[in-house]
Amino acid sequence: MQYITQNRHGYSVDFSPYFADRIACVTGENFGIAGPGTLYIIDAQPQGLLLNKRLEWKSSLFDCCWSEINDNIIVTCSGDGSIQIWNISADNAPVAVMKDHLQEVYCVDWTKRRNAPQHVISASWDKDIKLWDPQKGICLATYSGHENVAYCATWSPHYLAMFASAAGDGTIRFWDCRTPSRCLKIINDGRGEILHCDWNKYNKDVIISCSTDNILRCWDLRNAKIPTITLPGHQYAVKKVKFSPHKENIVASCSYDLTVRLWNIALPNPMLEVIEHHSEFVTGLNFNLHRPGQIVDCAWDEHVKVYSPMSLQM
């Protein structure tokens, strides 16, 4: 199934944690370089992917993440340095706009636990990570230390207050949100800019990263001097990487080489499948929490695609 984001180039996609058939996709005009952005809410129906709602922002939108406590709330971030909170059941304007970053905001992530304080973290080209209270619309803390663009910030699914950040300085940094003045740990890759990272959902000590050197690397936090697994195969920089929420060893990645690749990190030959169904950079992907083996991705070719790779059906 596919949906065309006419004249809007995709940056990120996220399946709803509440509804198996609902997807959010954020986009930008002119490949995100200049112009407005659009948030698409798309529903998968028997007849295909259908538009539920289209929400406009004055600047390109780079990332999105659903709330864990309200099925209508979603957070996005944009090139004008702001973060938007939307209620898709309400008006077409954000219910809150939060701004404290000095440059583009490239990543947002909502707290993964419904019984925990609800916070959002953001990563920006100003090199900082920030913690937000989305209900009050205020910045609670700033986490400084990266020496280049911060591309990614992601909450640990295991440790209540811990998150990881990845940046153009080739490091992954680990933080306790309660102590912004002190970084807990630094993984120094040093072989390229780290564009994204993701926690293993079944092993609290494992995280995976992807880099501009075209390679994915798994790290064990207990001994992170060298990667435990290295996954070459992409021909250009890897934009996003995700661990499966259903199987400990399954990984999906998307790249500027126009492909999505599936991996099983437990196998001697870990690459399972190469998917070539886009004609431009593939910039976003995610697993469906409700349907094991189903993936959504988006690309600069203005296409959002939902599919079930053959390698994940075994």
From TrEMBL:
Domain EIPR1-like beta-propeller residue range list: 141-263
The entry's keywords: Cytoplasm, Peroxisome, Protein transport, Repeat, Transport, WD repeat
SMART domains: WD40 (SM00320)
Localisation per UniProt entry: Cytoplasm, Cytosol; Peroxisome matrix
Any one GO cellular component localisation term in the record: cytosol
WD repeats: 70-96, 98-142, 143-176, 231-265
Biological processes per GO annotation: protein import into peroxisome matrix
MF GO annotations: peroxisome matrix targeting signal-2 binding
InterPro entries per the UniProt record, alphabetical: Beta-prop_EIPR1-like, PEX7, WD40/YVTN_repeat-like_dom_sf, WD40_PAC1, WD40_repeat_CS, WD40_repeat_dom_sf, WD40_rpt
Chief location of this protein within or outside the cell: cytoplasm
Pfam family, one: WD40
The family this protein is said to belong to: Belongs to the WD repeat peroxin-7 family.
Protein name in the entry: Peroxin-7
Organism: Trichoplax adhaerens (Trichoplax reptans)
